[in-house]
Description:
By secondary structure, the protein is an alpha/beta fold. The chain folds into two domains: 8-177 and 356-370, 3-Layer(aba) Sandwich (Rossmann fold), CATH 3.40.50.2000; 192-354, Glycogen Phosphorylase B (Rossmann fold). Helix content is 38%, strand content 16%. Strands 10-9-8-11-12-13 form a six-stranded parallel beta sheet, sandwiched between helices. A four-stranded parallel beta sheet has the order 4-5-6-7, sandwiched between helices. Strands 1-3-2 form a three-stranded mixed beta sheet, with no helix packed on it. It starts with 7 loop residues before the first helix and ends with a helix.
Amino acid sequence: MPSYKAGGPVKSVAALVFHLKEEFNFYIITGNKDLFSTEPHKGIKSNEWNVLANGEQVFYFSDEHFSWKNLAALLSDTTYDCIYLNSFFSKRFTIYPLLLKKLNRINKLIIIAPRGMLSSGALHLKSQKKNAFIALAKLFSLYKNLIWHATSAQEEGEIKNIFGTNETVYKISNLTMPPVESRTDYSKQVNELRVCCVARISKVKNILFALEALQTVTTGNIVFDLYGPAEEADYYKQCIELAATLPKNITISFKGDLQNNEVEQALKKYHLFFLPTLNENFGHAIVEAMLNGCIPLISNTTPWRNLQGQNIGWDIALNEKEKFATVINIALQMNQTTFETKSKAVQQYALTHCMDVANIDAYKKLFNFIK
């Protein structure tokens, strides 16, 4: 799929299609622009079905053509067994379909994946608006009589905490795609560290915190490259200003967007993946970094826990900012042998999860049950 700026939710769908394309037909309805973009994707046909590489069919709505009536007509003309909503707050591609179901314009079962949007960290941002919407949605039973897809026990608890313990929730971890090529470059000198982050420059990704954590690291040669769109202009400005004040041994670069087909090769250049995120219900960027040999340094607000105990990285509480700097200093002292051993262990751990047959079978059972 051409879109990539929304990050994890897009990759979740791409991986779902990749692993299940032999058993299910996928019809994907989305917009013809990427997140934050004003121009349509190149190489697509808007307002008609496009057949992509894995056999999935994608309908790209233009802004001008999209309406609830046109969405209802498209769904009416399409043969399908269920609808899978890949968001919680999306006006066009979650709320409109739910309203159509409420009006009996849709008579198929709906599955909804909130993609971490019901976590306390996510709801804390723009909390008044989000909480008001949830209250209204509950009042009008907008999210009733559907199936929830949670990707972790934590997310399952979040769903039931908000919508009640009687909700039907299927807990199945996200799928990911294996790397196209194996990593071959493990070069690493003591007192030299190449660090990266692939994420939107936004409060929920906690990029400012990452920069603050580096303020006390005054030795060694550190390169920290950040890839991702600036989601919030004021926040991005704060990050730029703070980066300029960091110790002279640290080089910070905001690299901007990475296309999907560029991510894998970019990650293979780095030793450490640094993302002290406020919340991830899965964390595709974290898994993709591990698959390509980056050792993760992340917060303990993701499903990827006890990394230290498995000797494959670090997950640290956000109220212990000084520990992030301590880990940076530890990583600086790694030699090539230590880094290569740890990097290969990280890759194997991620690959085992990526190809987990139990997860793939769980999705097959979910969709076959609905049929």
